[in-house]
Amino acid sequence: MDTIESCQQKILELIDAVEQDGSGTVANGSDIAQKMAHYYAKMGDLFLEQNDRAKAAASYETALHLNPRQLSARMSLLKTKGFVSEDDTTKAFLQGMLAEQPQNVGMLNQLGKLHYKMYERGPALECFRQALEVEENAESLYWIAGIQQDLGERAAAEENYKRAAKLRPLIKVPAARAVPEFSVLLLFAPFAGNTPTEYLMAKPPYEINIAPLFAGMPCDIETLKKSGQVVINFVSDADQGRELLPQVVKIVDSLRMPVINHPSKIQKTTREGIAQLLRGIPGCRLAQVVRHMAGEKLPAKLPFAAPMLARPAGTHGGEKFEKIENLSALEALIRQEPEADHYLMEYIDYKSTDGHFRKYRFIFVDGQILPYHLAIGNDWKVHHITTDMHKTDWMQAEEKTFLEKPEAVFSPKNCQSLHAIRQAVGLDYFGIDCGLDRDGNLVVFEVNASMLVHQHNEAFPYKTPFVENIKRAFDGMLEKKVKA
Length: 484
Known about the structure:
Elements: H1 4-20, H2 31-49, H3 53-66, H4 71-84, H5 88-100, H6 105-117, H7 121-134, H8 138-150, H9 154-167, E1 171-173, E2 183-188, E3 207-212, H10 221-225, E4 230-233, H11 245-255, E5 259-260, H12 263-266, H13 271-277, E6 284-286, E7 289-292, E8 308-312, E9 322-324, H14 327-336, E10 342-346, E11 357-365, E12 368-377, H15 393-404, H16 412-425, E13 429-436, E14 442-448, H17 464-483
Parallel strand pairs: 2-3, 2-4, 4-5, 6-14
Antiparallel strand pairs: 1-3, 7-10, 8-9, 8-10, 11-12, 11-13, 13-14
Helix pairs in contact: 1-2, 2-3, 2-4, 3-4, 4-5, 5-6, 6-7, 7-8, 8-9
C-alpha cells in the first residue's frame, strides 16, 4: 500500500535516475514526468484523506505541471479547490479543462456552481443548460430549478424540480472531510418555506442526503430510511407549508428516526399559533393577532385599536408589512392581494428612551439560547441591513456588547421568559425576534424556524464568533442525536 513517505521515496528515485543519465531535467510529458506525476497525484489523494487540503492541492498542481493531461489529477484538484476557493483562478482552470472536453457534463456543472457562488446567475444557467443538452441529468435540473426559483419563475422551477426528483430522488452533499462522521437525511420543500440552509449546511463534517418534497408526490420511505442516521425537517413555514406539512408529518413518523424539528411542531408556529402557545408567560408581551381569511369581509370592529400592523400570511422580513392607521387603509391593503390570508396584529410601541427602536435576535439550538444580532433603527420596522448600523460606531459597539454579554441587556426576568418560550415552542432549532419595552418586559415580534443565519458579516467582523457558535451548536446537536 502506498504511503506519503513511499510516494516521496519513489519521486526521489526518479529524480536520481534523471541525474544519473546526465540530462539533469525532467521534460514535461516525458515518461519520467508521467511517473512522477502519478506519485504526486497519489500523494494528493493521501493528503486529502488526512483532510490536509492545502498539501493535497499543492501535490495535484505539481502532478499537473509534470503531466498537464492527467485527467484524474485535474478532477481531484477541482474537488479539493471546491472546498477552499471561489475565485477567478479556479474558474479559469475549469474553463481550460472544458476547452479540451466541451461535452463533459461534470465539468459544466462544476463551472455552473462556481459561477453561482460568485453571483453570476446568467453564466451559471448557461453552463447547466449546456450540460442538459449533452445529457438529461438531475444535477443540472436541480440547479436550474433553484436559480429559477430565486428569479421568481415558479412554474418553470417547479417543473424542473420534479423532473430532477424523478431522475434522482436524493441530492447528495459530501462531507467536507474524507471520512464523514455520520449521515443526515434533510427534508425540504422548494415552494413551502424552508429553514435557510446556506450557512448551517456549509462544509459539513457529515454526509447530507436531501429529499425534495412536493404535495401529492409519493416518497420511497424504504430508500429514505437508508439515507441518514437522523432526519432534519427544514420545511419550516407553517403558512407556506400548510398544504404539505401533514404529508411531511406522515413521512417523518414512518421513518422512525431521530428527528430535528418535527413537522407537527412546525404546524403550531403560525403567528396566531405562537400567540396561543406563549400566552400567559410572565414578563412577555405579545400582540393580539387576528387572521383575516381571503375573501371574507373585515369585521366592523377588531379586538385592538388602531394603529395596527398587517401583512399577508407566509411573508417574512419587511415584505408587504405595513402599519395601518384605520380600517379604510386596511381594506385598501387587503385589496392589493385579495387571494391571500392576512395577519392583523396589535401594534406595541417598543421605542427606547433615546428614541431608537431595538430588535434583538436569538437562535435556540438544542436548549441553548444564542445571541445572533441586534438591529437599531429609527422606525418601528427594523431590519439590520436597512439601518445605519454599518456606518454608526456606537450602534456597532452596543451590538457587540449584547453579543458578548446578553445578560447585561436582558434581565433575569427576561431570561426566564426566553426559557419559557423555548419550552412552549418545543422545537430543536428556531429563532426569535424581540424587543424590550420601557418597563423592561420582553416584547415578542416573531418566533419560527425560518429565520436567517448567515456568515456574510464583512462589515461587522465582531459578529463572526457568535455566528460560528450557532453553527457549532447545530452540528453538535446532530451528533448528539445520532449518538443517542
